[in-house]
Amino acid sequence: MTSNTEHWVRLAGEDTDATIDNFELFSARRALKLLKTNLGRDRLLELLRDDIAAGDAFLRDHLERSAGAEATGTTTLRAHRITAAQFTGWLARAFAREDVMLAGHPEHYAIHKAPGRNVNIVETLGEFVCSFFMREWDDSLVKTHELPATAEKPAGRRSHMLLEDGTVIGSIANVFTEEPGGFTVRLSVTLPATCAPEVVEQHLEHFAVEFRTWILTAATELTPQA
Which domain of life, per UniProt (predicted)? Predict the structure, then answer.
């Protein structure tokens, strides 16, 4: 995206920035993969130790100021030529592949199952690097205001987000619906109310990036090669 509409640089004969943006995206992903791989999880988390501590304080402050009130946002993605069943099956298996999980978003710093604990995710929330744990998915009905259920769009499932000491700071929820030629997925995040709207909106953008990456990776891996 061009930051200044009065000035732009594009490939000759093209009317948008899309081609060069894609060149940059490819290179950025490659550079991040190299750095994350060579550093390794432990060294990377050590480098981010102070940032994670600041993120922890950020979440605790919002939790205290919100006094139990929550804010929720939902975004919907449409996938083509892959079914929800295919993708969710692939995703369940992919959680054991840390490289695939990290590649989902540039600001994924760690996604792994801690020994004897839930999955630990270190990523950006708002302007902070935050470390939290995800509980096992709860397949019971999701709150009506969060992901309203209809006959065509059944209620989804939820996983709560916890700090290392077990403090619940929010939750994520999703619902997958098969559609002709593909599927839709509604992705929801719930955080302390004082985080809204900027942090909630930023995380919905995060959802869009990571799930598009994972869905396209799944489609590629599940497609028989000629």
Answer: Bacteria
Q: How far apart are the first and last CA of the chain?
A: 36
Asked whether the beta carbons of 41 and 111 are under 8 A apart, the reply is no
Are 69 and 62 spatial neighbours (Cβ–Cβ below 8 Å)?
no
The domain tally of the chain equals 1
> What share of the chain has pLDDT > 90, as a percent?
82
Distances (CA, A) of 194 to 130, 144, 158: 16, 21, 21
Residue-number span of the structural domain to which 70 is assigned: 18-222
The DSSP output letter for 152 is: S
What SS3 state is found at 188? strand
Would residue 129 count as lying in a domain? yes
Tell which residue, 201, 125, 127, 196, has the closest CA to residue 161: 125
CA distance 115 to 128: 25
* pTM score: 0.89
Q: Does a structural domain hold residue 141?
A: yes
Reading the block at residue 84, the tokens are: 């929800």
